[in-house]
Specification:
It contains four helices and seven strands, in the order E-H-H-E-E-E-H-E-H-E-E. It is globular. The protein has a five-stranded mixed β-sheet, with helices on both faces. The chain has a two-stranded antiparallel sheet with strand order 6-7. Helix 1 (23-37) packs across helix 2 (47-58). It has 171 residues and is of the alpha+beta class.
């Protein structure tokens, strides 16, 4: 049941590119995102450290990975999104030769429904346009699907998927 009480205003988020020094907080956000999708999963000991090392090694390599952080007020990061940049084979036409894979768009629960997800996605799509991407693709969660549809994504792209990993066993 929704309350008729107005919500506390949330300042517009400041969106910025992440740097290697952000890796520990980004690892914490990644953990919150994935643990929230599978609350009964067995948590890997040392995940935060392993993830932070992985992220810190990739953030300086903007030709391969980029990450944005949303910050609102003094409450620290309220969300994040990652993009992996993928080259395409050369084409004999004027078709762009780059794709973008959007992953791990996560907004902390207290910041949801305040435009943080949209602000993050707009930053990503602007960078995709600036880099001349042919297409942007992702696998949405059920909760995030409407966000992507509002920003022009379509389920009718012809993209096929063959899953090789089914939880803890290979297909």
């Amino acid at each position: 049941m929704q309350s008729d009480q107005p919500r506390d205003p949330v300042p517009d988020p400041r969106i910025r590119l992440a740097v290697a020094a952000d890796a520990p907080v980004l690892a914490a956000l990644r953990f919150e995102f994935r643990a929230g999708l599978a609350p009964d999963a067995v948590i890997e000991p040392g995940f935060h450290e392993r993830c932070a090392v992985w992220m810190a090694a990739r953030l300086p390599r903007e030709e391969l990975w980029s990450c944005w952080i949303a910050e609102a007020g003094s409450g620290g990061p309220s969300g994040t999104v990652w993009v992996q940049w993928l080259e395409k084979l050369p084409n004999p036409t004027d078709e762009p030769e780059r794709h973008a894979y959007v992953t791990s768009l996560y907004v902390r629960p207290a910041a949801r429904n305040h435009g943080v997800g949209s602000a993050l996605l707009k930053a990503v799509l602007a960078e995709c346009a600036a880099r001349g991407c042919d297409s942007v693709f992702l696998w949405p969660t059920p909760r995030s699907r409407s966000l992507y549809l509002r920003h022009g994504f379509s389920a009718e792209s012809g993209l096929l998927e063959h899953r090789l990993w089914q939880g803890s066993v290979r297909a």
